[in-house]
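We now fix the convention by which a protein and its fold are recorded. Think of the row as the fold of the chain written in a discrete alphabet. Here is one such record, which you should read through line by line.
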Amino acid sequence: MSSNKFFFVFKDTLIDNGDSSLKILTLRNPATKNPSKYLLRRNDSKETPSVLYEVNCFNEQHRSWFIDETVCSNGKIFIPTPIDPLFLALPYLEEHCSEKAVPLDQVFVDDKFPLTTSVLVEVLESSRISLIADEKRAGNIVAYKYNETKALAWLVAKCKRLSRVVSKQDGPAARSMNLIKEEKENELEENACVALQTAYGIVSDYVSLEVCRKLSVALGFPEDENISKKRKSAVDLESAVLKKIKKEDIHETTPIKLPAAEKKVSAKAKALAKAASGSKSISSFFKK
């Protein structure tokens, strides 16, 4: 039995390039702040920039892999998918350079995740950082100051682009939009709203709760649809579900006693009772 092997599903273009190397690393999740696994494809050619992927894991109990002549007891499936590194950069820019411009090698500093600085500097071009920050130059020094207006505009544009893709896809979102199309008169506006809400839900998984709330307002969603109550973290949500299931299993409720149903008396029984109302019991004749 072997458990120190892992099964990855790669896209052909990810591994066909012989000039690139792949490395699994741990960085801080921009939404939950917890450790998450990422894949860095580093290209030897300077003309091709390095690319960052998030590693999604599909796990199911009682699953193993047969690899050559061995059995791998780790039956998880890991699927790397591209991620915009600006999502990872956003919380660092917001935290370290909201008040003043700071060089990048001082912005992406994280004591718990020491690879953050080198990785984000490697995968982010200055033109991309300028989408959410203002660039300041003093001689050879380049510094950046976080710009919330720019950041929200970037997120809104991303949601709108994603909504156009979502509206063309088959699946639950498309089926719900078809249902709305049948039930609503203004079908085009309703369909666009559903697609935008779906896109917003996807994007919100990569930013903090506070940014989610501001993005919701920027998209023009009603206040009661804000994300402020959406997610403390994936771990907190899972814990809450488990507690709820446990509570239901042990039935922590007091049974309610219902009043006994009133017995129905037939007309014949009523007549017999009336006839016997003035009579004595037969046992009374034997008493002294």
